[in-house]
Each structure stands twice: as structure tokens, then as C-alpha cells.
């Protein structure tokens, strides 16, 4: 997959997964990787940025399988931001699809 396409949609994808249920980093990486290839070196800086921007909050929770895990959860700002990104995505992809259909070579 084109890196620029992935980069442009990754924030929305990450927020979407976390919006469904709070997740810890490795769990999130596995969930995203089921659909698109992602490097941990890409995910964790994005999560830190989203926390800093107050779109996500974190909590530490004990784990039965090792040390406590840091879980990520959407904030109210994060919910609004995700809604905005999804709406922009829908408008953008509809426009691109229209352009591709209208300019399709026969």
C-alpha cells in the first residue's frame, strides 16, 4: 500500500479502533495489522501525539500476563475529532471515486 495513503488515514484508523474499545499498544498494533501493515515505530509516536493533543487518555491496568498495560481511550475531544475525520474521509473518497469514474479510460 502506498505509504502516503496509509499515513494520511492512520490517525483515523487508530482512533476508530480505540473508539470501539479501549486498547493497549500491542493489541492495537495487532488489530490494525489485520488490515494494513504498520510498524510499531509508526504507531507509538502517533499515540503519544494523540495523547498530547488530548484526543486520547491513558490508564494503567494490571495484566495477568506480565507488567501493567497502558490502555488508550478516546476523550470527548477525541470522539469529536474522529467524527470530523470520518466525515472528511467520506467526502474526500466520494470525490476521488467520482473523478476516477468520470476519467476512466475505456
UniProtKB/TrEMBL annotation:
Domain Transcription regulator PadR N-terminal: 14-83
Superkingdom in the source lineage: Bacteria
PANTHER family (alphabetical): PADR-FAMILY TRANSCRIPTIONAL REGULATOR (PTHR33169), TRANSCRIPTIONAL REGULATOR, PADR FAMILY (PTHR33169:SF24)
The name this protein goes by in its record: PadR family transcriptional regulator
Species: Aliicoccus persicus
Amino acid at each position: 500500500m502506498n505509504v502516503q495513503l496509509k499515513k494520511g488515514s492512520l490517525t483515523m484508523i487508530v482512533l476508530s479502533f480505540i473508539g470501539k474499545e479501549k486498547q493497549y499498544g500491542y493489541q492495537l498494533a495487532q488489530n490494525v495489522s489485520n488490515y494494513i501493515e504498520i510498524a510499531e515505530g509508526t504507531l507509538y509516536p502517533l499515540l503519544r501525539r494523540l495523547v498530547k493533543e488530548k484526543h486520547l487518555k491513558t490508564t494503567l491496568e494490571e495484566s495477568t500476563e506480565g507488567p501493567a498495560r497502558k490502555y488508550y481511550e478516546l476523550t470527548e475531544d477525541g470522539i469529536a475529532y474522529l467524527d470530523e475525520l470520518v466525515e472528511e474521509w467520506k467526502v474526500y473518497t466520494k470525490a476521488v471515486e467520482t473523478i476516477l469514474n468520470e476519467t476512466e479510460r475505456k
